[in-house]
Batch of 3 targets.
Target 1
Amino acid sequence: MDRRPARPVLLIVEDDPPTRGGLAEFLGRDWDVLTAEDGTEAVALIQAHMPDLVLADLAMPRLGGMGLLEVIQTDPRTREVPVVFLSGQTDPRTVVDCFSHGAADFIAKPGRPEELRIRLLHAWKQARRVARLESLARTDALTGLHNFRALQLKLDEEFARAARYAQPLALLLVDLDNLKALNDRYGHEAGNAALRETGEVFREELREVDFAARFGGDEFVALLPHQTGAEAMVVAERLRLRLASRPWPWPQPLTLSIGIAAMEGAMHVQDPASLLAAADAALYRSKHKGRNRVEVASPADGLTADTH
Ligand SMILES: [Mg+2]
């Protein structure tokens, strides 16, 4: 079974073999240690193992510490991996340079073992704390889905990708029907439970590559990369049916009104806001026709059909 070890993974990058060996042995008390003899070897190991922290020398053949830091920071997958330098080059300009390029810490060689140990653990915990806070800042507390802010970033990203590679992208705008009435009749406990149930249904029905967010009070958005409007229609119906079939203690049933807009084939969409606006127009139609149903946006909703 491929299970990630409970201990954090440290990558030591050092060209001097005795130093490298000594560090690996000593730090092996706290970490699962990987070693590389220069930045180039380190890059390959980072891609393969995603360490929790990198401890790097500055002066090394091929790729030095600063070059390695730059590679780590330009790759979105490794950007958050903290890098601590351990170097004999302790002139103020070098130290300042390391920090201003994003080093998590700088420790002068040879370094006192116990201090090195505690500073590495500190750098790792600090990085983990920041990652957790950033994740919280993108999460809707009630449903555990992404929040509006996260959606804005993701929508821009997915829209640009779909436009660049001429791939379809579907957007579902989902309204939990009559939430206000539910709140008024049965209290906010019922309303909050309804929102949580809806969030649960999104988690159960959507694929790993899809993206679900709570958009506002009673509205949700799902982004479905590579899905056409027709495919999104199937997903939307499943969301609606799944919510209706869940056990629900209050007499007012849980239903969804859904509007879909998709960029696909000859259907051109100017920008992310237009995609959202088209889905909103479709959602409006779905509510207007009596709620608890799905509508797909057409050229009349602001999507432009290519006439070529
Ligand atoms: Mg060196």
Target 2
Amino acid sequence: MFLRVARHTNNLEKIETFYVNILGFERLGGFQNHDNYNGVFIGKSGLDWHFEFTESNDNVNHHPDEDDIIALYPTTVLEYNNLLENISRNNISIITSKNPYWNQNGKMFLDPDGYRIVISPLRAKNIIAKNQSSKSNKSMNILLETERLILREILPTDEMAIYRLDSNPNVHRFLGNNPITTMEESRKYIDHIRNQYTQNGIGRFAVVLKETNEMIGWSGIKFITEPENNHVNFYEIGYRFIEEHWGKGYAYESAKAWLDYGFNEMKIQKMYASANKENVGSIKILKKIGMQQVSEFDWNGIPCYWFELENK
Ligand SMILES: CC(C)(COP(=O)(O)OP(=O)(O)OC[C@H]1O[C@@H](n2cnc3c(N)ncnc32)[C@H](O)[C@@H]1OP(=O)(O)O)[C@@H](O)C(=O)NCCC(=O)NCCS
């Protein structure tokens, strides 16, 4: 059996734009003036269901209540995250569901006709492009290689390198947070990053010097879920290196590799970054990889630049 969910609308164009451009469906077909009805079929090729939206000379007469919901289940974490990013970029507000289940298991918002839609990560597998994340050992199976560097997941055994990195006040000069003072903090930080791998399928990665096999810092893509400069649920590029390895082009080399990976493998639509306005080195790197400085904002009292780059 095939399923078609048909709905009347006074905003056919807006509805089509919303379901296709924001929610990522396809326009499967449409018709004009069939007994005074215009319509579009919206779905995904290969699926045995789709929406039909119709417009006629009559005004719509909808009475959806707060529990009338369309629930969508993206099949990968990446698809789920991309949808959230799209929704946020289009300034669509996330609303609270009357039924608490959906607040715990998804994000609710309204379509242009005021119907409630939920996207839920419950069926999303933690797959990133070609790289599969295995839940059993939480290993990332992503390994990038550049001319001089290996970019691999951060491991619990990196605690000493993270300590060397993050206990140095010079490293934290423009970061607005305090250097760490104990190995326990180093371990907690590693746990925090590895949790992001599981939750978001991506996070900061260790940068290892091929020549010596030494971990010299981290670099990578983080999925940011807290609001920053009026953005939420976006991918950000960042890096941090042990001081003795500064000035050798490693930050640029790794950041470029991550930008390419984010655009070509993860298919991220827009990459973001930010830097303290005084962090000349970081600003230079971001500009060198092609990020565009689009605005300024205040981050916890620190004046920062905001960078963006569209994946074209
Ligand atoms: C900022 C940081 C990542 C730079 O790393 P790096 O490996 O030294 O940077 P690179 O060698 O790749 O430098 C790339 C370019 O920036 C320039 N640059 C780097 N640091 C600079 C500085 N402090 N002042 C001026 N230019 C600088 C380099 O000369 C190079 O320019 P070029 O391409 O014209 O030769 C490093 O200093 C660091 O880890 N700082 C602490 C953490 C931090 O601030 N992270 C960024 C948060 S937004």
Target 3
Amino acid sequence: MKKIILFALIFALALSSQALALAAEDLNIKLPAPEKTGGMSLLEALNNRRSLSGNDIYDDKVLEDEEDLQKLSNLLWAAAGVNRDDGKLVFATALNVQDIILYAFLKQGVYKYIPANHSLELIEAGDHRKATAGRQAFAAKGAVCFMFVQDVSRWEKTNFNFNFKDNLQEIKLCGWEHAGSMTQSSYLYAASVGWGARTRMNFDKDEVKAILKLTDTQEPIIMQCVGPLVK
Ligand SMILES: Cc1cc2nc3c(=O)[nH]c(=O)nc-3n(C[C@H](O)[C@H](O)[C@H](O)COP(=O)(O)O)c2cc1C
């Protein structure tokens, strides 16, 4: 009898872990390669750049059709992608430290963007966009809620062997500059395809840290909601 119960337990465990694996697989997002040519001219995009206004309403859609997925891919690349064979990025960072990690809170889950292979890694399933909205509920309706996280420990890996604890103030200032470059690129891409965007510092830092399972050296510094608008 004991053997039967044990067998049933093992069988049930195997089934549930398979179900979990399948569920996680469903949430994986396969990004198409980013488009690096074409689109609106830079000058026009600069002229169109603005933050979402009170009259604009995000279209809270899941980014599941191919056209949206292509735009998500382009947006990620514009904000944080690699643009050269040596792994350097579309925006400049001091000492090429690349200390900002870009997270995307989507309806289906929270993802970490990996610039080196232009992919999204699932961090947490489920809709956690509310944590990035703080007291501004409209922000949780952006199809993409970006969170820009500085990891100061990356400074120790630069050629200068910075001890980040002795230079924390300058390092944090650089982090803001880096994140600012990223949000501007993202604003410009959004402007070029008629999407809304708004950079925001009003969000629940502790909740975001818990969801992203951040370490002591990683700090969320700014967020940006981006996405298609209800016409
Ligand atoms: C660092 C920073 C923090 C911001 N924080 C918020 C915020 O918490 N909530 C908000 O609604 N807008 C926020 N904004 C958006 C600004 O209010 C907006 O950029 C400004 O009104 C200028 O409008 P524009 O972007 O259309 O030029 C922030 C912008 C920046 C750059």
